[in-house]
Design goal:
Strand content: 15-25%
Radius of gyration: 23 Å
CATH class of the largest domain: Alpha Beta
Helix content: 10-25%
CATH topology of the largest domain: TIM Barrel
Strand order of the largest sheet: 1-2-3-4-5-6-7-8
Distance between the termini: 49 Å
Number of helices: 11
């Protein structure tokens, strides 16, 4: 979503909305004697983050005031921000580097709030180098960042979505007729893929030589592109693979990379996901493929989200516009599933709506890129802000996995009648199933996260039977609704010596079920 267009215009500094930091954590119906595990001054969640535009390189980003919004990120509980630094602004003459003052200011502020930072070293430097992405020059600039910003910067991402501007510099990529599989119009593999692998490897080696503790992450292509690049050989100094798993027009558990006979051929005999296109299979296949080819072990999701734009007959987009309520539920589901799958870091796009990107002011509400924020462009919160704030607190200390044996079986149907026709020709639907992930909390107690994978609608929560292999005499359960903040004890009975919840409510957003000793 980062753009490389520049606008010299600026907006007045925003001085409003300091009161957002006092936003209540929950709107809660709490039984007497029941309290949340969240604290008023929480630690930051090390697995979740938000994408930001404190770089303010475009007209659409001028309202991103770090003095206003970095404290709100800390209040949100997000442990990471992902932003960018423009290479050509940092290196204005060959071999001479300086961090722009406005970048250093927000980085200092993030450090004071304990927020970790991913920086994409972005854009080209064609004024200084014949090759606008000269790999040796880029690597040296990244190494400078790794030393100059030690303690303030924690991960360097090697370019953003290189199939766009990077590939275009060499006459290739998706803007010039290339496909989602890294192929040109004739079905041949494009040369930018190999170029990028050289760039990534040289950068990783230079950065690690300068600062061994700095994370280096990259690829950031569509899954099939990533697989092609992995087969070309990634340096052992590359820590993680970046993915941007947008769901575009469907629910979080589905991504538009389902396998099919035709897709299998297009991708050189490789699968990027299962036949449904599940997010879980995308992560699993990516990890397995990387391991097979001695690639990075870590997975970093550095962009994804749901736009709350409005649809109109004269606007076209790959993204549907979703209600703010759907955005909140889907964002929770993606964060929760990412934690269940053990994703190292997941940063959603984005903290704040942009302003009038490439559009006239009166049309901004119809432009998808302007409307992905947890906050509206005036800083007022959408429902997703409080929801993510709640999740960030409640999931700190949760480790995926556990020894608990249980079954969760839906007893009602929620079929999806709205087909998503993906660009690759596959037809996708939201699964008519409930999903769950098991965790262990910091005290060693089991926690189950569950929700329905249906689309958001006007229906009440569906029902499911939950059977847990523990005794009712030893354990009681406390449920925490991450969307509403409600804490309650679901009705439990004993069935053949096991804890049993008949027709437990399973909403289309995550509920945490904590099993506590009596």
């Amino acid at each position: 979503m980062f753009s490389h267009f520049r606008f010299p215009l600026s907006f007045p500094r925003l001085s409003w909305f300091a009161a957002l930091a006092a936003l209540p954590l929950t709107v809660t119906a709490v039984p007497v004697g029941t309290t949340s595990t969240a604290t008023s001054s929480p630690a930051l969640n090390p697995h979740i983050g938000v994408t930001t535009h404190f770089v303010r390189k475009m007209k659409a980003f001028q309202h991103w005031d770090p003095d206003v919004y970095i404290p709100l990120i800390a209040d949100l509980g997000a442990g990471w921000v992902r932003d960018e630094i423009v290479w050509a602004w940092m290196e204005k003459s060959r071999g001479n580097y300086e961090i722009p003052a406005k970048d250093r200011k927000w980085l200092d502020l993030a450090e004071r709030h304990g927020i970790k930072v991913i920086l994409t070293l972005s854009a080209s430097n064609g004024k200084l180098y014949e090759d606008p992405y000269d790999p040796d020059a880029y690597a040296k600039a990244a190494a400078f960042l790794a030393t100059e910003l030690k303690g303030k910067l924690h991960a360097i991402e090697v370019l953003n979505e290189p199939y766009h501007w990077y590939a275009k510099a060499y006459g290739e990529g998706t803007t010039l007729g290339g496909d989602l599989y890294g192929r040109d119009k004739n079905g041949e593999e494009e040369s930018w893929l190999k170029r990028y692998v050289v760039l990534l490897n040289k950068t990783a080696e230079a950065v690690k030589a300068a600062n061994p503790d700095m994370k280096v992450i990259g690829l950031g292509g569509f899954p099939a592109m990533n697989m092609r690049m992995i087969t070309m050989g990634l340096s052992s100094q590359v820590d993680g693979i970046t993915l941007h798993p947008y769901s575009y027009r469907i629910t979080p558990e589905i991504v538009p990379y389902a396998t099919s006979e035709e897709n299998f051929k297009r991708n050189g005999g490789r699968q990027t996901a299962d036949t449904e296109g599940t997010f879980a299979s995308l992560i699993r296949y990516s990890r397995e493929f990387s391991a097979k080819h001695n690639g990075p072990k870590e997975t970093w999701l550095t962009e994804w989200g749901w736009s709350t734009k409005r649809d109109a007959v004269d606007t076209r987009s790959n993204f549907s516009g979703f209600t703010e309520e759907a955005q909140a539920a889907y964002t929770l589901r993606r964060f929760m599933e990412g934690q269940g799958l053990g994703v190292e870091v997941s940063t959603m796009y984005s903290l704040l709506d942009n302003r009038n990107s490439w559009r006239t002011p009166e049309r901004s509400e119809f432009f998808s890129d302007d409307n992905f924020g947890l906050l509206r462009d005036d800083g007022t919160p959408k429902p997703a802000f409080a929801a993510v704030r709640r999740l960030a607190r409640e999931t700190i200390g949760l480790t995926p996995g556990g020894k608990l044996r249980y079954t969760l079986t839906a007893t009602t149907k929620r079929p999806d009648h709205q087909v998503f026709a993906a660009r690759d020709g596959t037809r996708l639907r939201a699964p008519d199933r409930v999903i769950s992930y098991q965790f262990t909390d910091a005290a060693g107690r089991p926690v189950i996260a569950f929700w329905s994978m249906e689309r958001i609608s006007d229906q009440s929560p569906r029902s499911a039977d939950l059977e847990i292999d523990v005794s009712l005499e030893e354990i009681h359960a406390e449920a925490f609704d991450l969307l509403t903040g409600r804490i309650y004890e679901p009705v439990a009975t004993e069935k053949e010596g096991k804890l049993f919840f008949k027709d437990i409510a399973v909403p289309p957003h995550p509920v945490l079920l904590r099993l506590l000793p009596r």
